[in-house]
Amino acid sequence: TMMLRPRGRPSPASPKYYVYPALVSAAALLLVAVITTREPQAQVGLATSRTVTASCGSVGGIPAQFASRKPLFVANQARAQTHVMQRRVQDSKSSPSSHRSAKMYATVASTADVDTPTKQSVVSGLEALTERAKQANGVPIQAVILDLDGGILDYEGPSNECLNQALAKYNKSGNVGVNWDLHSKIMGLRTQEMAEVILDSNRLLDRVDPDNFIKRYYEFMEEKYDKLNLIEGAEDLIKNLKSKGFPIALATSSSRESLDRKMSNHKHIMDMFDVVITGDDAMVHFGKKSTEMFTLAAERMGADPKRVMVLDDSPMAVWSAKAAGMYVCSIPDQRFTQDYSNGGPDFKVTSMKEFAKLEGLVHEALKLPDPENLPKSEFNDMPITVGFGTDLIHTAQDGSLTCDDKITQAINAGYRLIDTATKYESEADVGRALKDAMSRGMKREDFYVVTKVWVNDMGYSSAIESVEKSLRRLQLDYVDLVLIHWPGPAPGKPEAQQFGWENKAKRTLTWRALEEMVRRGVVKSIGVANWTTRHLKETLSIAEIPPTVNQVEMHPYYTRDRLLDFSTTHGIKLMGYSPFGRGRLNIINDPIMGEIGEKYGKSGAQVILKWMVQRGVVPLPRASSENRIKQNYDIFDFDLTPEEIKTIDGLNGDKRSCSIDCHSIP
Questions:
Q1: From the CB of residue 503, how many other CB atoms can be counted at a distance below 10 Å?
Q2: Cβ contacts of residue 410 below 8 Å, gap of 6+?
Q3: Active-site amino acid positions
Q4: Cα(198)–Cα(167) distance, integer angstroms
């Protein structure tokens, strides 16, 4: 019988008939071996390279902190992270399929890109707050903030049931489904990531579309919304709080529409809240409440954040509330595994009924700030001199002079106050120039260094991180003065806030962060920039450490008299940028400047700078040429008469050279 074979295929008698398949099989085995040995390392590398927690030994070939199935919470308010879960890497020989889920690892192991020192310093502040709570015999509270899901409403039970119902269509092999151990790991993940983790845990990720799974889940939840129950004791708690005069806020990461659906059967409860903050009102981090959300709730109730009690047990919410300076109480849900890796709640109660007794809470009446009795800064060591501004000071086109060369020229000319900022991108240049000066015999205390937190870094931990990065760029152990660069984004900018309370919450959080940096000893004084009198009153009303400086635009055509008077009264010194009106207003060529300058043998620019210094304001002129740098500092050999100062004051026309009007920032 003749055997039919495809054309070109060798016969069984031919050596090629056996050799080719053997070579292919060997190559496949080699490839599998390489993947098997390398993939766990790649996965572990992803986790360790992007996680702020340092490794402490290893278990099964991976860092010890990832060997447990418990969620690992990473505290970082700036980039909004919640539970981070890394499943144990199984022995590749016994379970080759364990390497199937690189997507799941990439999704769930992702953490904020913040270095270890930043994280550790933030945690120290939270530990100090917990210590404050431990030492309190009675806790003085002005207001209370309650959580929705798990706080007053039993949402997790029905949600878990619907997740299993949605999974039942695909899960025919009897795998784990969504048990409470898995449920605790997905809490806080975004919906898409939650679906991927659930499907992966049930070995379905390769054949089930997460979007379809999510759709089925919400179809089942639709039937549950009208049947959601309050947690036992929640209504009694709210009534007790109201009877004792406590203002109450509800803070939820749910949207307003979702909140209305969930509480459709409990509208009488919603009517009891003084303030309701939803995910539509404030920033939400990966489905969890942010520090801004808690601060906003306190703000709307008129309460001091450090006199607010938050009832919540989500690790992200606990950290966010504590970052705002609030007390936190939790009612642990025994179904979940809550891992407070970076400090847990200050108080724990076993049930809502227990908390409803309000034992240990002392009602403290709201203390509204007295506009006639705002605090005054007691420490202000900023020298009244000419400062050197480093905004727009660039390297020469021919490369002959770098930015730090020009700063060195300023130091050699006598300047000791150096003004920089994150936004200017000149901090590293200032650091090199200072290092050079100190190598030539000068001391750190000879200089007064100013830097600023940019608008995009406003917030609690983001401002702390910004200051720490500035210190590293400046190569300094401390900064003399840190300012908040603007009260908020300028109107019309993409990131501009529509409502004033959003900016106010950001300003409050950023100020709390700067106060923390003063307590740590890495910042000597703190202040603001481009604040109006309205903004200053706001900051003074919440400040534990009052601002010492306000840096604003000032020149003879924009004298800021009312702001100067208010600031002086409250111990705040002014720094003036654009003293020459950025050249647009041609102030230095004003005839009055020429007439006064001719009398003293000085230029119009020197007259303007002297006028500012004699008003008690630190001018910040910019200059690129060495001659102009020297000339701007050469103003200490003459004084203007009171009449000459009054004449220059009379030139005021409230003409700005800056395109942004700080009065327009809500």
A1: 22
A2: 388, 418, 629, 633
A3: 424
A4: 9
Cβ–Cβ < 8 Å for 111, 81: yes
Kindly give, in sequence order, each residue whose CB lies less than 8 Å from that of residue 665, ignoring residues fewer than 6 positions away.
Answer: 486, 487, 488, 489, 490, 491, 503, 530, 535
348: β partners: 330
Which 3 state secondary structure label does DSSP give 173? coil
pLDDT digit string (tens) for 434-478? Answer: 999 999 999 999 999 999 999 989 888 789 999 999 999 999 999
- Rounded to 5 degrees, what angle do the CA atoms 528, 530, 535 make? 70
For residue 616, what is the DSSP state? Answer: T
Task: Report the alpha-carbon distance of residue 144 to residue 46 in Å, rounded.
Answer: 41
Angle of the 403-413 helix axis to the 626-633 helix axis, nearest 10: 40
Exposed, middle or buried by CB within 10 Å (0-12, 13-18, 19+), for 161? middle
Output the pLDDT for position 435. Answer: 96
Structure token digits, residue 401: 């002079």
DSSP state of 269: H
Q: How far apart are CA 545 and CA 526, in angstroms?
A: 8
SS3 of residue 288 by DSSP: strand
3-state secondary structure of 315: helix
Contact criterion met (CB below 8 Å) for 51 and 111:
yes
Q: How far apart, in Å, are the Cα atoms of 413 and each of 298, 401, 440, 627, 629?
A: 50, 16, 15, 10, 7
Sequence-separated (6 or more) residues with CB below 8 Å from residue 133: 139, 327, 346, 347
Q: Which sign does the torsion angle of CA 553, 554, 558, 561 carry?
A: positive
Q: Which amino acid is at 361?
A: L
Find out whether 246 and 141 touch, Cβ atoms under 8 Å. Answer: yes
Q: Distance between CA atoms of 505 and 542, rounded to whole angstroms?
A: 11
Q: What is the pLDDT of residue 45?
A: 23
Cα dihedral 403→408→413→419 (10° resolution): 60
- Long-range Cβ contact pairs of 90-93 (< 8 A, separation 24 or more): 91/60, 92/36, 92/37, 92/39, 92/40, 93/36
Q: pLDDT tens for residues 353-401?
A: 777 777 777 788 876 666 667 777 666 889 999 999 998 776 655 555 6
Main-chain phi, psi angles of 363, to 5 degrees: -70, 120
End-to-end CA, the chain: 94
**Would you state the pLDDT for residue 284?**
61
Quote the pLDDT of residue 351: 76
Residue stretches of the chain with pLDDT short of 70:
1-138, 171-176, 184-190, 282-288, 332-343, 367-372, 377-379, 394-401, 492-501
Closest CA to 529 of 569, 490, 577, 566: 577
Retrieve residue 141's tokens: 């509270």
Contact 639, 610 (CB under 8 A): yes
Instruction: Return contacts of 120-123, CB within 8 angstroms, 24+ apart.
Output: 121/464, 121/468, 121/520, 122/75, 122/76, 122/323, 122/342, 122/461, 122/464, 123/75, 123/342, 123/343
Query: How many other C-beta atoms lie within 10 A of the C-beta of residue 579?
Result: 26
| 368: number of Cβ within 10 Å | 8
Query: Containing H/E element for 614?
Result: helix 604-614
**DSSP per residue over 521-563, as a string?**
TSEEEEEEES--HHHHHHHHHH-SS---EEEEE-BTTB--HHH
Report phi then psi at 555, rounded to 5.
Answer: -165, 175
SS3 of 452, please? strand
The conformation of residue 570, written as its DSSP 8-state character, comes to: T
Q: Taking the model in full, what pTM does it have?
A: 0.62
